[in-house]
Amino acid sequence: MSSLEKIGPQVGSTLENYVAVCEALPSLQDVPSSESQNLFIRKLNMCSLLFDFSDPITNLNKKDVKRRMLLELVDYMTSVNSKFSEIAMQEITKMLSANLFRSLPSSNHDNKFLGDVYDPEDDEPTKEPSWPHLQIVYEFLLRFVSSSETDPKLAKRYIDQSFVLRLLDLFYSEDQREREYLKTIIHRIYGKFMVHRPFIRKAINNIFYSFISETEKHNGIAELLEILGSIINGFTLPLKEEHKLFLVRALIPLHRPKCMSAYHQQLSYCITLFVEKDYKVADIIIRGLLKYWPLTNSSKEVMFLSELEEILEGTHTAEFQRCMVPLFHQIGRCVNSSHFQVLLSSFIVIIFVVEIDFTKLEA
């Protein structure tokens, strides 16, 4: 008789008998390999039950039992030395979906007065109360996607477009810890599941379109741009028309929102990467910056000037000549600014342009 048969048939996974059922299951390390998959699946089922973390003092024992079982599943994911079966993958994604995909709480800054801009440095973000479980579930997903025992040809049936899209929806979470995990996981999925690459790029584009044209509210723009930085790095020449359209329709318009400071570093990096990949897009980018140039926001203007300096560093003569007249008209207005940092930054750009040896860039 196997160790699983000794504990009898699986008891209904209810909150009332949760601890008893979990503690009756042997450790994954203590069963022979022939029984490990069935036990693994039973533990996945037990970890699909959710507990209310809005009340920190209820179900403490049950929450701790689930936390320890989740940790055991993470360890198993690391030590497994055989390919995951289709049944296992199906149960894995069920457990992940049950824990991860949920309605996010309304954002604190959604309730601010109209016209106020959310500032992540000044406004306290909402922490996810279920993080003691959620963090381990994310770690489990990360290891599952990264595992050499996960066959992407089989796993793509379960880590499918719907699953990926629901992960992307979670970037709206105010909890930065969650967004950091999501960033790493989406990057790994992009690397492992080549079939999903066009879909992921398009889905991120759609998030940006919605953010720019409709809401200007999203907590994960910086993290999504970090993912795109890695994707852009992998672009080959000549740039595809899809990639140029993404630059023009999504990346450049991201300079418009008032909250650009929350993600400008990552945006500037992506823009500069495009110039490094293909200097011919520099003219398009500079004209795009001029289109969205801030008129009344001096701190944002300083960011534009700093980004402009980085773009000019990779700009060739022909591209510079196409946009230099409107460019210097704008710099001239900056020179007349009453804001000291804008004035200083504009002089730095002028000096930088004067010192550029465009002939070297042509080589």
Protein architecture, described:
This is Serine/threonine protein phosphatase 2A regulatory subunit. GO terms for molecular function: protein phosphatase regulator activity. The B regulatory subunit might modulate substrate selectivity and catalytic activity, and also might direct the localization of the catalytic enzyme to a particular subcellular compartment. It comes from Sesamum latifolium. With 363 residues, this protein is an all-alpha fold. It has a domain of 71 residues. It is built from 18 helices and no strands. Helix 14 packs parallel to helix 16. It is elongated. The N terminus is likely disordered.
Write a compact overview of the structure shown.
The chain is mainly α and 363 residues long.
Properties at a glance:
363 residues, disordered N terminus, single chain, mainly alpha
Overall pLDDT score: 89
Order of helices and strands: HHHHHHHHHHHHHHHHHH
Tally of strands: 0
Question: pLDDT below 50 for ≥5 consecutive residues: which ranges?
Answer: 1-13, 111-118
Tell me the strand percentage band.
Answer: under 5%
Give me the number of helical elements.
Answer: 18
CA radius of gyration is 26 Å
For the sheet with most strands, the description reads: none
Helix content: 55-70%
The structure class reads mainly alpha
Shape: elongated
- The termini sit apart by 76 Å
Family: Belongs to the phosphatase 2A regulatory subunit.
GO cellular component, one term: protein phosphatase type 2A complex
InterPro entries: ARM-like, ARM-type_fold, PP2A_B56
Pfam family, one: B56
